[in-house]
TrEMBL record:
Its main location: membrane. The keyword Transmembrane applies. It comes from Noviherbaspirillum suwonense. This is Cobalamin biosynthesis protein CobD. Pathway: Cofactor biosynthesis; adenosylcobalamin biosynthesis.
């Protein structure tokens, strides 16, 4: 049932992608804002309590409904799984931005690419040239794919099924929402959400990096992972981007005055604050071709996950 649920959810999303500004996401966003207003008194324990309230109020009903569906019919439980995965997966949520940036760069329309990337990143990209825009788009795509696809896969495979997918996506959102805008990053309220998400994402991030290495240039990916991942401020980001860049033979996270100031404000791509020299990083400077390489890497990694899941499902069925 697990493999079929994921396959159906991916197929439905390919046919009708769920918009990032859909009502379900909007309701959860408003709920998180309300909980923050109720509990935020400037202490870490208040953030912990608020996080538990949000997570419990969303995951427990998910488990209960799944249990009731199983009592009625396995097909009803399958439908519930597909619905939850459709809402938590985001393989096509932001693909239109990536595709539009890629098309603009391919046609030489750098100004349009800057505007599109600025909308996607919600940051200023003025003054950036084509290689910088390509690098930022690649980094954003890799991190977004991990958080909206592979991380959800891992937690959906856990014994609590759809509740695991909800747990991962909500925890990821709270880690961002309760540390924004900039003045919130120093507040104690959001520290627990950031820390607990780090541990929730610890295994999925490494599995994503391993998948990139397997379907790409394995030797360079492992070398970059081992030697350069720790140079990012955000360890998880460093693991995914170093392995992904090594797998494609592309140098990601190269410091530049404009790009560094931008990335340091991005939750998805915080780069080396110590200043890594560009020539010490493996791979070539990103070009427009790196965008197409990113698409291929992500699809191959997705197929690898699905193949392993299929083999696991067959083994369980035969056993």
């Amino acid at each position: 049932m697990t493999f079929i649920s994921i396959l159906l959810a991916l197929l439905i999303e390919q046919l009708k992608p769920l918009r990032a500004d859909n009502p379900v996401y909007g309701a959860i966003k408003n709920y998180a804002i309300r909980v923050e207003g109720w509990f935020n008194a400037g202490h870490v324990e208040h953030g912990r309590l608020g996080w538990l309230v949000v997570i419990a109020s969303l995951t427990l009903p998910t488990v209960l409904i799944y249990w009731l569906c199983m009592r009625v019919s396995p097909f009803l439980a399958l439908a519930w799984n597909v619905l939850i995965l459709y809402l938590t997966l985001g393989f096509r949520h932001y693909s239109h931005y990536f595709t539009a940036v890629q098309f603009a760069l391919n046609t030489g329309d750098t100004e349009t690419a800057r505007k599109l990337l600025a909308q996607w990143l919600r940051q200023d990209t003025s003054g950036m040239d084509a290689p910088e825009l390509a690098r930022l788009a690649v980094e954003k795509a890799l991190i977004t794919t991990h958080r909206h696809v592979f991380g959800v896969f891992f937690w959906f495979l856990m014994p609590f099924g759809p509740a695991g997918a909800v747990l991962y996506r909500v925890a990821e959102y709270l880690a961002r929402a309760w540390s924004e805008p900039d003045h919130m990053k120093t507040e104690a309220f959001g520290r627990f959400a950031i820390r607990i998400y780090y541990w929730i994402d610890w295994v999925p991030a490494r599995l994503t990096a391993a998948a990139f290495a397997i379907v790409g240039n394995f030797e360079d990916a492992i070398y970059a992972w081992r030697n350069f991942a720790r140079r990012w401020q955000n360890e998880t980001t460093g693991i995914i981007l170093s392995a992904g860049g090594g797998a494609m033979g592309v140098r990601l996270g190269t410091p530049h005055e404009n790009a560094t100031s931008l990335l340091l404000t991005m939750d998805e791509a915080t780069i080396d604050a110590a200043g890594v020299e560009a020539e010490t990083l493996p791979g070539e400077e990103p070009t427009i071709r790196a965008l197409q390489s990113t698409v291929g890497l992500v699809w191959r990694a997705l197929l690898l996950w699905m193949l392993l899941l299929l083999l696991l499902s067959v083994a369980v069925w035969l056993g």
